Amino acid sequence: MIDRDCIFCKIAGGDIPSSTVYEDEQFRVLLDLSPATKGHALILPKQHYANIFEIDENILRDLIVLAKKVASAMKETLNCDGVNIVQNNGEAAGQTVFHFHMHIIPRYKDDGQVIGWEPHTSDPEVQAQLAEKIGQAIH
Q: In its keyword annotation, does this UniProt entry include Transferase (predicted)?
């Protein structure tokens, strides 16, 4: 399904021009208009899924394989020192466009970007309880 009001559906469908890196029946890979680093790309499914909770598992499997191919092409052509693969779900997690997408961000030594979180300490007993609770909910 395509959401006619979704900007990423319009881009993925070719209705809005983009710097397309790759395209097939399921996905369009394009360069981000506000890149974190040189070569920062987005993988957009052509079908609309708001987030990871909605996306079809078969599409998700194909997407991660494509992400590896894009990351490998970046390493080969851009000579980057590493790659971040980032995917946000929900406003609290930094998602700003509610069409599932994955960022492939080439990283260069001393590029000035920070992608991560501030580590906290954890209580082993709480960790064990959380592991059991989450594990029981996995289907």
A: yes
Tell me what pLDDT residue 48 has. 97
Residue type, 28: R
pLDDT in tens, 91-123: 999 999 999 999 999 999 999 999 888 899 999
Task: Tell whether 2 is covered by a domain.
Answer: no
The answer as to whether 71 is a domain residue is yes
Q: How far apart are CA 112 and CA 36, in angstroms?
A: 9
Q: What are the two backbone dihedrals, phi and then psi, of residue 104, each rounded to the nearest 5 degrees? A: -115, 110
Predicted pLDDT of residue 85: 97
CATH, residue 92: 3.30.428.10
Q: Which residues are catalytic?
A: 101
Alpha carbon 35 to chain centroid, angstroms: 13
3-state SS assignment for residue 73 = helix
pLDDT digits (tens, 9 = 90+) for 31-88: 999 999 999 999 999 999 999 999 999 999 999 999 999 999 999 999 999 999 999 9
Does 43 map to a domain? yes
Q: How many domains does the chain have?
A: 1
Report angle CA 79, 99, 14 to the nearest 5 degrees: 70
